[in-house]
Sequence to fold (405 residues):
Amino acid sequence: MKLISTIFCNLILINAAINTENGYCVSKDSCEETKNTLSDKKWLFYDVNPPEGFNLRRDVYMRFAILLSNEQKRGKLQEFGLVLPPWYKLYHWKTTKKREPIPWGNFFDIESLKSFAPVVELYEIFEKSLKKQLIIDTIYVLQNYENPFENDLFEDKWEVQEECPYVPQYWGYGNITANEIICVKFQGKISMLPELFQLHRNDKFIMVAQGEIPLHDNYGDRTYWKCRKSMKFNKKLTEIAFNYVKEKLNCDTELCKNYLGVHWRRQDFAKYRSKDVPTTSGTVKQIQNIMQNKLPHVQTVFIATDASAKEREILQNNLETLGYNVHYYVPNIAEVTEFDDGTIAILEQIICSHAAFFVGTHESTFTFRIQEERELLGFPSDTTFNRLCPDKGNCEKPSRWTVVN
Ligand SMILES: *[C@@H]1O[C@H](CO)[C@@H](O)[C@H](O)[C@H]1NC(C)=O
Fold:
């Protein structure tokens, strides 16, 4: 009986395939449902300017997820799903061996993302494809205005341009293409984007390139935090980090009391933003200061960093001389081959999120994401919004983006 119904369903599927104008099967569960949703469903793809890193991209995701969620609550864009752009050749992920685009599920809990917005992985769209190529109807390539303050006013506006420099990467896939590219100068809130989609009302596969250009409508409001909360890392990563905290740092609760978390950003920050970050010896002094003043009974420091092996060693030796236990996340042999840089960075973030006290790097999105996580966990904000200061000169306090429930 099971066999017969499978064959029967397959037959209908073939029928559905024949009847399909754009060649996509949207649901594998029900053939009838497939027929219906096929004609209705639309997909919103987006991409981000290649140099932008993982943690800024997480914020761009939130803008798109919030856009769709808000619109759908108002009865608009009902037929749309948001396609999660695979992670491909990220600038900071230097040692990443896997050159294949990485799906979001490798890092995030997809069910949790879905609880906030109708998201789907790109490979799921591929799986539903009955053709050899995925054809996007229109790509809207966004560009900044040359002068954002034209007439001394920052206005929300957009206008179609003749042309623009743009080489589509399609997240590293060679079998995706587009029918049309429209260049648009864009400035302002992301809720203005659906106006663009009116240019081609019947498109089913829409893509926004340079998706970092539109801004949040309301940064830090209740919806923002609801979306942020749904951006959970997947169970596997959460477990690995939790085990590390338990075994190496001797803490088995969420709000640990026995270690300091530090995000010590070096590399490009040390080179180009030396006015904002300390030297290695300045870092030692500041860590010592925090330990003495904020955590007098604590001996353990966990450091998340992109510093070179040499710099790590110097910092570690100096802190150990002062009597502290210093930890970096060092992947074991099995993990080295399995994990890419992105995975290790996430583990470091989770570990910093649970620290008794956290100090980060000025204007680093890696630091921002840790601060948000700590707000969600319920740490007092004083233990979270702290930064390493430059050795000399001004040290502006970090903005406090506190959670809104
Ligand atoms: C495009 O290529 C990828 C990787 O080679 C493959 O997994 C995917 O199924 C292909 N997509 C289509 C629509 O054939």
